Amino acid sequence: MPPPQGQVVFPGIEQGNIIQAEYTLQHGITPGICTIQIRPQGRLRLVPESLEFRFGDLRLRFPGCRIDASHWLVNENERRMQLTILDRRWAW
Fold first, then answer.
1. Is residue 1 part of a domain?
2. Structural domain boundaries enclosing 71
3. What is the 3-state secondary structure (H, E, C) of 5-58?
């Protein structure tokens, strides 16, 4: 049986535009880092929001996250935007 498909939610990112996401948990005062690749879309909100990962009924919520950086990944077939989101420890 394949593992359940995960879903990531961050306000301002249109759900259908998310291609992939990963989160690296850091210990101590260093912020955890979430990297999300999305298809091009309109404006992104740059205020702190909650990042949420969903796996079936399981919800992992990280409040106070913010977009730290973005850049384009471009090849001959497509354009993607890669976002780096830091957990709430960015403010520490």
1. no
2. 7-91
3. CCEEECCCCCHHHEEEEEEECCCCCCCCEEEEEECCCCCCCCCCEEEEEEECCE
Pairing status of strand 58-74 against strand 7-9: unpaired
2 found inside a domain = no
Q: How many CB atoms lie within 10 A of CB 67?
A: 21
Q: State whether the Cα torsion 24-60-47-43 is positive or negative.
A: positive
67 occurs within a structural domain: yes
In a domain, 57, yes or no: yes
Cα–Cα distance, 46 to 42 (Å, whole number): 13
Is residue 52 within 8 Å of residue 61, measured between CB atoms? yes
What would the pLDDT profile of 43-66 be if each residue is shown by its tens digit? Answer: 887 788 999 999 988 999 999 999
